[in-house]
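Dear colleagues,

For the upcoming journal club I promised to circulate an example of a predicted protein-ligand complex. I picked one with flavin mononucleotide because it came up in last month's discussion. The inputs are reproduced below in full, followed by the predicted structure.
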Amino acid sequence: MKPKPLKIDNLKIDTPLILAPMCDVSRAPYRLLCKEFGAGLAYSEMLEAGKFKMDRKQFDDFIEEERPVGAQIVGNNADNIKSLVESIQDKVDIIDFNAGCSKRRYIARKWGGWFSGHPEELGKILSKTRDFVNLPLTVKVRLGMNRKEPEIFRILELCEDIGIDAIAIHARFVAHNYLDKADWNLLKKIKDVANIPVIANGDIFSAKDAVRAFQETGCDAVMIGRGAMGNPFVFSDAKLAIAGKDYPKEHSLEERLSAFSRFLSYYKKYSQKQNFAEIKAQATWFTVGAPGTRKLRVDIQKAKNEDELMHILKLGS
Ligand SMILES: Cc1cc2nc3c(=O)[nH]c(=O)nc-3n(C[C@H](O)[C@H](O)[C@H](O)COP(=O)(O)O)c2cc1C
């Protein structure tokens, strides 16, 4: 089983493995690291249309080395979306519209996941957005608001009519948040009728899962979220696995800390935040998966500054 390169409009993505948009995670340093480990594409965390221009500092800028890269936008006001797109369009290769975020404050504002339950409204904002986005335009959705109303087939139809270039589907309903398993059976049914590339998302945590997701859903690409947190190896492993090659079944603590070191150097170079709590969170995630490291994670939490953290991790600063 060798998935083909992904084509999103005129953009060819050689490896159909995608880093999901994740707040505070899919920022420039981590996107770059995942790309280097084998992700064919990475999406930014969601950028709020309206807020972005006023508060640019809270987001990392896009960097040349990480391209191709997608910028995810969340909002419901076409003028705000347009000005955000105009401010970033030279630095990114894809614009993605977030129609899947289940955070209550977004749903209350009729943003994000609200659109997964309101296909006609989604169609309206996507039509307007399509008019001014000259880059490939993708949409990330859930299956609908709740299982009784699976709006996804209507959403797909609208996306195709409007000229959306690919659809990424987090295979859960908004109301279920993360409570149930992602519904890959439904993903397969969607893929079977789709005329645009379908990106499968939900519960892909390992190379084995990625292979299974391609096999079971027939989707054109897989998007990995939680399974990629502190674990860029999921991309290097999955890249080998989908090419039918052997891949390492585990990664040592040394390997993980070396990847963390590389992340930290990118963080220092590219992050707008420079926030020690964030560095500690990343250090913690990078050690998960290495056996016998629970105590190490407790110690990481105790570190008060970077020198202490480096000492705990036995890394030269
Ligand atoms: C920490 C975190 C932040 C997230 N932020 C976003 C976001 O900014 N935009 C978005 O569309 N989805 C966001 N998501 C959802 C993921 O992109 C993804 O759809 C979801 O986690 C399911 O994929 P997974 O099972 O591979 O984690 C976030 C998820 C997590 C865990």
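Two points we might discuss: The chain has a mean pLDDT of 94. The chain has two domains: 6-242, 253-313.

See you all on Thursday,
B. R.
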